[in-house]
Amino acid sequence: MTTVTRPSPDAATPRRPAKSRAAGLVASGVVLLALCLCSLAFGVRSVSIEDVLAVAGGQVDTVSQAAVSARIPRTVLAVLIGAALALSGAAMQAVTRNPLADPGILGVSGGAALAVVVGLAFFGLATPYALITVAIVGAAVAAVFVYAVGSLGRGGATPLKLALAGAAISAAFASVTSAVLLPRADVMEAFRFWQIGGVGGATWDRIGIVAPVLAVGALIVFLTARGMDSLALGDDVAAGLGEDVARTRLVASTGAVVLCGAATAVAGPIAFVGLVIPHLCRLLVGPDQRWVLPFTAVLGAALLVAADVVGRLIARPEEIEVGIVTALIGAPVFIWIVRKQRVREL
């Protein structure tokens, strides 16, 4: 009887010892912790790292304590949103085998944003749970629509066609969103900065509502890690290894959509986090999703926290929203990926 051996997801790249990967993950966590301390320290009123640490022990003046306390929910929200968007991008890239997949580039964030604005303007939705729900539905509809458009013509859903379809549909979504908002001054004022993408309005109530939803989405993505490794071998090989290709794609895509929709509902459409971080993580640890996903979550959180800190520092006493900073980082990386990989499949 012939035994079919499942190929290792690391077969195409030099294998890295598990100890070195674990050490890298710990180092990434230390970097994230350091960035979180910087996020608590820097702002309109800077606080020394010593005072930040003293606040944790309750041994600092009231002014410093107030400044640090106000920044804690903002930092926590940046960690959650960064990890969610990065995981969503990693899952999209694995499911579509598309190196250009990203919630922003493929129009998924734009669909979620449009759904939120329509819900506010026409249906009077105001509760956070309602907005998160419509955002997830909008993200799912946008994902299906972009994939359908990108699949038209010869060759099916190639990476380049999906990227072009996503860019065109994202522009259309943004135009419709602006058209809905412009005549409605009350909604426009409330969501003027939300459209750009940011974490400045973080509160513990918002975090408490969105965190469980993001946790469910992340759990779905992590549970499909092994299946996504099989998809990287090609549909025929994956099916031959006993993988239910359609089910794996559906479940992983559901997790990606939940993460993207919930993150967009709370922080607005933030692009390029889901593009940059998964590529960096695959360079660090290889293509094994069981390692890529934890690294992606940690480094995605680190990137968004860093972008938030940079946005606060370079325009003091004003702020630049993280959506602008991540776009400045991600656009050159997007161009590099297109030129370097010639948009081949993963």
TrEMBL record:
Bilayer topology: Multi-pass membrane protein
Superkingdom of the source species: Bacteria
Localization: Cell membrane
Keywords of this entry: Cell membrane, Membrane, Transmembrane, Transmembrane helix, Transport
Cell inner membrane keyword on record: no
Record-linked Pfam families: FecCD
InterPro entries: ABC_BtuC-like, ABC_transptr_permease_BtuC
Keyword Thylakoid: no
Transmembrane regions listed in the UniProt entry: 22-44, 72-92, 104-123, 129-150, 162-183, 203-223, 256-279, 291-310, 322-339
Chief location: membrane
Family: Belongs to the binding-protein-dependent transport system permease family. FecCD subfamily.
The protein's name: Iron ABC transporter permease
Organism name: Microbacterium aquimaris
